[in-house]
Specification:
This protein starts with 8 loop residues before the first helix and ends with a helix. Helix 5 (112-118) crosses helix 6. With 226 residues, it is mainly alpha-helical. Helix content is 51%, strand content 7%.
Length: 226
Amino acid sequence: MAEIPELTAEEVRVLGVLIEKSQATPAYYPMTLNAITAACNQKSSRDPVVEYSEDIVDYALEKLRDKGLAAQYTGSGRALKHGHRIGREGLGLTPAQAAAISIMMLRGPQTPGEIKTRSGRQFNYPSLEFVQETIDGMINGETKSVIEAPRRPGQKETRYTHTFLPVDETAYEPEAPASSSGGSILSDINALKERIEKLEDQQKDLIAYNAQLAKELDELRRTLYE
C-alpha cells in the first residue's frame, strides 16, 4: 500500500485505538467490538473525547477493512476480533512509527517531546533525537504519513500530525501564553496529569480484559453444554 487513504474522524479514532492497544497491551489484542468501543470513548489520553456507539465503531471497522487498514479474526468461542494492518503486511510502519502516529490519531498534533512522554506503554524512545528521526522517516517516506501541523501564533515548538485526515487549519486557534512565573507550575501539573492518565488507562485495560474473559468463559460454557 503506497498511498495513505483518506479516513473519517471515526475511522481515525478506531485505527488509532487498534494501533495503541496492539503495542501497549498486546495480551488483549486483537480486540472485540466492545473493547474497541470502550477504548474509543476513554476520557483520558483522548482529544477530543467522544461517545461512539458500537454501531458507529462497527461501521468504521468495516470501512477500514475495505481500505486495507484492518482485518477481522475469529477469537476463542464465537467472538469476532479486530486488528490493524499498518505493519509489514500493510503500510509498513515500524513499531516506533506506529506508536507516534497512534498518539497523533488519538490526541491530535504532537511535539516530539509529547510523543516521547506519552508513548511509554507502546514504545520506549531512547531520546528526542530518535523521535525526530522516526517522524522524519514518515514525512519523507514513500507513504508520507506525517506532516508538520500549522503553527499557532506564539508557538515555538513544531507539532506534527498524520495525513489520514485533512488538516483543519481553523482548529489551530491562538492560545494564551503562560506567564513565566506560572510556567514551572503548569509543567508540573501537566506531568502529573500524564501520570494519572497512564494509570487510568491501565485500569481500564484490566477492566476490559476481565470483562472479555468472563464473556468468553460464558460462551465456552454454553458451547460445552449445548
